[in-house]
Amino acid sequence: MRGVTAVGYSDGLSGYHQDRSSRIGITVVDADIPNVWSEYPLSGADWDLLQASPNGLFFSRKAAVFWHVKKGDAFPVVVEPSIRADGDTTWIFTVLGIFDVGAESQTGQMPDDYVLGNYRYFDESRPLSKQGTGVFFHVAVDREDHARHVCKLIEGRFANSSLPLYCVPIRDDATQLASGSLNNMRYMSLAIAGAGLFMILFLCATGVAESVRERLPELGILKTIGFDDRKIQLLVLLEASIPAVVAALMGTVLARVADRLIVERTSYVLRGMPHPAVSLGVLGMSAVAAIVVAGISSVYPLRRIRRMDVAAVLMGK
Question: How are beta strands 23-29 and 4-16 bridged, if at all?
């Protein structure tokens, strides 16, 4: 096709290593990928070795640390029976080497914990009905400003195919994905946070109201011996705010610890996702939210204290 200088394709192999909870995803690439996707930080000799070693794998350094592998290790992966033509569920791979990621991974353009395999070996092991197909086709164009035009040509050529293609320039795809993901996550996070704060507000308001109701005789005695409404209200506010602030700070820190334990140690799929950062600003926002919740929860009890009939309360009425 005019404007296209190279085409490479890739697919994904998903399974688990040793334990069902240890999920792994392997990106299998064909021999033309280096001509299209130069960001993969493998040398020419490494690419030649990968193509000459059907069952070989290259691990990024972060992935190698996670899976505790080194060059020359055997690395079995268990897959679903339908993936291989012979019905076998175990793929025995060999670690060919470990590479360091480039600057594109450090800037977030590519993951830094991926595993590369040989597409030809993967494809020839599949059932005949699935051979010769790929999930992703990577296209290099002669000029950057031709990308959108080439995509329209590709989509038009395969519009009536039983396997239509969707094409998008990688820069446009990254921009749309980033903006869409940020907006969706922002709305979702706000909705979840709002629901959580409403539940916490309901629980705190109920607890503070019950506490003040049970302690009305004590508060009546304090008024009798000279405590004014302002001091008693401050006491109630402190009793509501201190536990709320401590709980908010502890919950924020525990959430970060839970994220690290669950995601980093048990889920290969989720390790590439952004992780929450607990900074002083986040802790400050948690404390402010807790104070606001405590203040709103204390509105009705404080109003009740202001209108309290001390004599009636002391008489148990």
Answer: antiparallel
